[in-house]
């Protein structure tokens, strides 16, 4: 495939699939038509003559959907994975920029992600430590101050200790966040802004916390719940070291590599790309799933593994249960979730930059030095940054590295992505108590999966997606046996 910038593993998988049915390739309809007898009547967007009959229809080929499909396939069930995009991975997207492999979505893993670590081990995949910063630029009394990473870490550790104080009591079992429901009820209504206000910090200390959380909340610390992050803090062992481990490692072969291995280990699962699902209808014998091109997928059960923000784009009959319907209308994913890869020229140190809540780029993370000189940086945009304006991006970098020159940059705006409509999940105040555990419960023969509804590493981690994929597969198995 000319100009295919997907990583080799993705090309190989898609290539296998398309090669089986050249007719489909020509029509550009689906990437895989493994179901016997499937015939294309028209081109993309036209009707299909026959439906696809399987045991289970999985909607969405992100980590949650593929985990569920792999598990169900291993149990002998036939599975159709129906995916809207022309690629797998969803909010994980390994691509290339400036000749380098880059992650446009999630990029880091932690040894504390137990399920994901077990998957890496199972398929013989390794992880590598990320670049360690040599300098930190942090908010000061008048503008920014340069600190050693150790000094910046010590200060953040002190501030986080205050911010997350009490989490050992209200999240004593962080994998089971409602274990102390009555204590959680006292903190779940708090936003980041509320919690910072409670601490009565100096202006500079408050600006550190606001600046730290702003990229996670999409620049709106008042809109997201502090318990989302308190749970990650708890899962990391209630320490700053554990917090830092969350982003300390990267998969050596890229974030999509594990997903490819899981797909390859799913002989009874077939993947249908470019097939946005529009409706999910429960029937007397199971579930009928219809894609935009009209093709019906008939299953004895279905797993809905699309982001919560996308549930409202699918017509469910009967309608979603109240807890899912409320979550769909409120949303869980952060709207302003724009990740930038920035190629800087010259001899640039591994500078970590943390801005204030109003900075155009409140977070900059150093990445690899480039072979021909210069360095790659990852940035997260604040509301005021126009990411298509190279000068604006350069000015945003210059708040941390005066005189830096941007050679080129690439921005992925997840809030504008048609099949995510948001980035990582971060619960709103009150959502933890409102959503769990109801949001994980099946509705008839329809089950739900996705990082946004995980019990443990909720929202911003493939660990949570895998957790829910395993749960959904178990629920389906119970239904079908
Ligand atoms: C910028 C960014 C940074 C992140 N950083 C990290 C990180 O460092 N580490 C980490 O572990 N995680 C990180 N995350 C979070 C992680 O990417 C997600 O939690 C995880 O990928 C979610 O997986 P999922 O399967 O639940 O959903 P998704 O990956 O969103 O998969 C859902 C799939 O459903 C498909 N779909 C949607 N609608 C339809 C439809 N109607 N019909 C058919 N298919 C549909 C989508 O195309 C998609 O492929 C990050 C996310 C973002 C956006």
TrEMBL record:
UniProt keyword annotations, A-Z: Oxidoreductase
UniProt-listed Pfam families: Amino_oxidase
Cofactors, names only: FAD
Top-level lineage group: Bacteria
Gene3D superfamilies in UniProt: 3.90.660.10, FAD/NAD(P)-binding domain, Guanine Nucleotide Dissociation Inhibitor, domain 1
Start and end residues of each Amine oxidase domain: 64-476
Species whose genome carries this gene: Streptomyces pyxinae
Protein name per Swiss-Prot or TrEMBL: FAD-dependent oxidoreductase
Keyword Oxidoreductase: yes
Alphabetical list of InterPro entries matching this protein: Amino_oxidase, FAD/NAD-bd_sf, Flavin_amine_oxidase, Flavin_monoamine_oxidase, TAT_signal
